[in-house]
Amino acid sequence: ERETEIRRMLGERGSMSFDEIMMASLTRSDIIASFVALLEMVKNQSVYMSAEENGDIYFEMKTSDGGADG
Fold this sequence. Notes:
Layout: H1 2-13, E1 15-17, H2 18-23, H3 28-43, E2 47-51, E3 57-61
Antiparallel strand pairs: 1-3, 2-3
C-alpha cells in the first residue's frame, strides 16, 4: 500500500528526497512503512537511489528500459 503511494509520488514528481517522502507520512506507522517500502524498492531495483555530497538521499523511478525517468 505505501509502496504504491511512493511509486505514484515518484511518477508525478520524477524524483524525491528521502526527507520529502518522509514528510508525506502522517504517522509514525506511515514513516516506518515508507522506510520499509523504500528498502524493498531499492532491493528489487525498481528505483535508483543517489546521495548528494551534503548527505541528502534522492530516489527516482527506473523506466521499463532500465534507465531513470527524465
